[in-house]
Amino acid sequence: MAIGNAVRTSIVRRRILTLLAACRPLVLFGLTALTAGCGGLNGIKEALFGGATTAGQPGIIKGFAGGVVADEPNAALVGRDILAAGGSAADAAASMGFTLSVSLPSRAGLGAGGACLAYTASRKGITGGVPEAVLFVSYAPTAAPGGMPAADRPAGMPMLARGMFLLQTRHGRLPFEMSIAPAERLARFGMPVSRAFARDLTLVAGPLLADTGARAVFAQDGALVREGQSVTQTDLAVTLSQIRAAGVGDFYQGALGRRIEQVSRSVGAPILQSDLRQALPGLAAPAVVSFQGDNAAFLPPPADGGLAAAVAFRSLARNPADMDGANARGLGAAARWRAGGASAEAILAAADLPGGAMPPLPASTSFVAMDREGNAVACALSMNNLFGVGRMLPGLGFIPAASTAVVPAPLLAAGLVWNEGKQAFRAAAGGSGQSGAPMAVAVGLMNALRSRQPMAQPVPEPGRANVIACDGYLPGNADSCAWATDPREPGLAVGGG
Hints:
Blueprint lengths: L1 E3 L5 H13 L17 H10 L16 E5 L2 H12 L4 H15 L1 H4 L4 E7 L12 E5 L23 H12 L5 H13 L1 E2 L2 H9 L1 H5 L2 H7 E2 L2 E2 L5 E2 L2 H13 L1 H6 L1 H12 L6 H6 L3 E10 L2 E5 L5 H15 L4 H17 L4 H6 L15 E7 L4 E7 L30 E7 L4 E9 L4 H15 L12 E11 L6 E5 L6 E5 L1
Antiparallel strand pairs: 1-9, 2-11, 2-17, 3-4, 3-12, 4-9, 5-8, 6-7, 9-10, 10-13, 11-12, 13-14, 14-15, 15-16
Helix pairs in contact: 1-2, 3-4, 4-6, 4-7, 7-11, 15-16, 15-18
């Protein structure tokens, strides 16, 4: 078992310095001030991460292209189309993340944060055939300086855009712009409200529709939109279009960033551009637990739902019948980490852990993707509260996440199983369901490994799981691969090609 939180920066730093020498002015993630010789966004991707990008065409892949699973069907369909266009699992995952900002903004808006596990099934890949965690958890910004309006709805840092950018630029192969385009189209031309989104709307209809901006988008003829109705989000489409055209950096340190600071003050949820500039995602080694010749990787803290899932998974490996004990130990691990004084490494390595409980936690959502080559991604996202602060940023079309200074952080949980000797993928799971998310991932993976099916039985309440499994490993036996969403939820599991 091993876990590490050190961000791998040396290679990227050397490439940044090389790029700076040939292409000034440039700030990492600030992609709007480039000389002509830089080659735009794809030139930066190639310089920083290696490999040329190739634009995908729908249907270019014939036959097996992989599979995707998400809590919201519109996102799953976009992910499938990206795979069918020749995209990697990371390309599909980034597109699903941006699509969820349109189709499930209650849990995954542009204001959201999250974390992903990414696996490239080759020692020649950027991570040497070992999974890595991409961490972009939303956190509380610095206190507003004097002269700024009071934050009656404190906001968390919006991390989704940079998180999806980092994931896709390290593990994708299509132009990054293709990750945003489907979400932009859905926002601009209309999207059918899914059952999953309609349910979230119903849960918070009163407080949400008290906000003029939210009411303008999520109500029609004075009534809350219902499942199947088409919703257009013009302001959000414009914001996504600007990110696509000007680069992710514009959202954090350009014109969009300045606009975010300006309008967030007006709704009592101030987000300073100085904080936006510093809001960088990170890379870390996952928590790893060995199991019958395979390795299971889990999100590391601060996505501590992954640490809880790792401890629960290890407990189930020892005693599959002790579900209650595994759940208690997992939650105890997260509670211990949040209390401070113990490292994640020490918590995971402990021979046993006392049970623990968590306060009421915010909702989250998860999705998983796998391509034909056995590359895989599992992600969990959250707004730290259904619809975050509940107030739409005027003219920008998205709601900020709630600040973890005033609400508990979510348990973001995802896991992935691979075989290091075979350099092959076996299973991946994403979990949600507040305090049940870690156990959903642990049981979802364990069930897949023991039953050789992606969803042999539902995971324990209140958890929900999305699972992909290849019992014969991939690359290798594509016929052994299957995918499933939680049978109690209105999500979608679908293959590409």
